[in-house]
Each structure stands twice: as structure tokens, then as C-alpha cells.
Amino acid sequence: MAGELSPIDKAKFVAAKRAADMVEDGMRVGLGTGSTAAWLVRCLGEMVREDGLKIKGVPTSTRTAELAREVGIEVISLDEARWLDITIDGADEFDGDLNLIKGGGGALLQEKIVATASDQMVVIADVGKEVETLGAFPLPVEVIPFGWQTTKALIEETLISMDVLGRQTSLRMNGEVPFMTDEGNHIIDLHLSRIGNARQLAMVLNQMPGVVENGLFIDICDVVVVGYGDGRVELRDINAGTIEEDRLDFVEEDNLFTDLMD
Ligand SMILES: O=C(CO)[C@H](O)[C@H](O)COP(=O)(O)O
Q1: What would the pLDDT profile of 108-132 be if each residue is shown by its tens digit?
Q2: Where exactly are the transmembrane stretches of this chain (predicted)?
Q3: Most buried pick, 1, 43, 101, 229, via CB within 10 A?
């Protein structure tokens, strides 16, 4: 039942539901990856089925593509869409400038390509993802499998030369085998605790041979919709410099929520 959901799940749900209201008929929509983004896809699916909303979705992972099709959203590729009106995605951390760490779900490469090809990137997150300084969440770096141990060592040396706190790195695993991204790459997680200069680190990492992309999203996100476990949502808009507050009643009144949880 709905009442059994944790406050974090409720927070994710209200953030997703509020962001779904930003999607209009005819839009090409980037669909993020992760548990919060999955709520968004379900909300949009309901709007397509029940309200006749007409959108085309560009998923950022095979997981999201499957879910989007399942709930009735028309799926197209980024190359078919070329440019998107909006991308809505989750995040692992966001700071006061709306810079992000993403890639906890391993989809950072497609997520960054899709978000960058959008008029607007909206992040949906529970309030626990808000940080003063990025870095407590391990920073994912996507690397090609060829020579990954050499790339890992190079990253460690660079972290030392940049005087970054906490220089441990680990290859992400999927059970006994290295985790594989949708593009057939591996992920090295950087355990840094605190990233002093995220902009510089993002640039340095991407210059290394073997590195495909890193999970720092700098100056990409426009709006964060922050969800709280009691149903409140806040919209933080970096361009307008505003914070809007709203409240959604998710337990009694939302059919999607109760249907899914029953
Ligand atoms: O970047 C991501 C996937 O690559 C996700 O957006 C991020 O990990 C947040 O996930 P969740 O919504 O499940 O907390």
C-alpha cells in the first residue's frame, strides 16, 4: 500500500510528479535513468494514456527505454530527435549552483549527451541529494575497457598532482565481473569526499586517454525539483534565481501512486 513507502520514495515521487507537469503536448523529452527518473516515466506514461499527452521520449538507457515503451510513451533515438525541449533526470548530488554528480546508475554518458542536447535540463531529487560541496558520493568516470588499469593508475596520479582529497578509486563491479555500461565501457568510481574545484576536475578527467566521460555535470542543469517526504516540492531555477514552493498530496489523491503501490 502507499502508506508503506519510505519518506525518500515519497520525496522522489512528488519531485517526479511536479516535473511531469512541465512537459507539454508535442515536446521531445529526454528521459533520465534511476529510481527517481522511473517515477517520472510512469507519471508521463499515465498522462499519455489518460490525458492523451503527445510526446516523443529519448531514453538515456536501455532500462528506461523498456519502461517508457511499457507505459505507452513513444520512444525515438536522439539522432531522430536531434534536439530536445526538455530532459528530466535524477542525480546523486546537487549543490547550490545546480552542479551535479551523476552516474550512480551507470548511465552518465548518455545522460550527459541527452541533457546537453536539450533546451532545459530539469533534475528531480529528494532533499537528501543536496550538498554544500560535491564529492561525498563517489564520482563515476566511464572508461573504455582497453587498458582500464592503466587509465585507473593515471587518474590516481592526476588526483595526487591536483592535491584532491581522498584519492581512492575502484572499478565498479556487477557481482564477479566488471560493470558494463550500455556503451560497453567500465566505470571507475573516485572516492574523493569533497571536490574543491569541480569544473577543473571535470576538464582534466576528460582530457585523459581512455576516459570517455565523467559524472560531473557543470552548468548543464537549469532547474532542480526537490521533493520532501511530507509531499512538499521546491523548484530551484538557476536562470530565474527563484525558489518556488508547492505541495502535492500524493497519498490519497494520486491514482498512479496508489495503483502502483497496491
Ligand atoms: O545518474 C543516475 C544514473 O546514472 C541517476 O540519476 C542517479 O544515480 C540517481 O538515481 P536515483 O534516482 O535512483 O537515486
Answers
A1: 999 999 999 999 999 999 999 999 9
A2: none
A3: 101
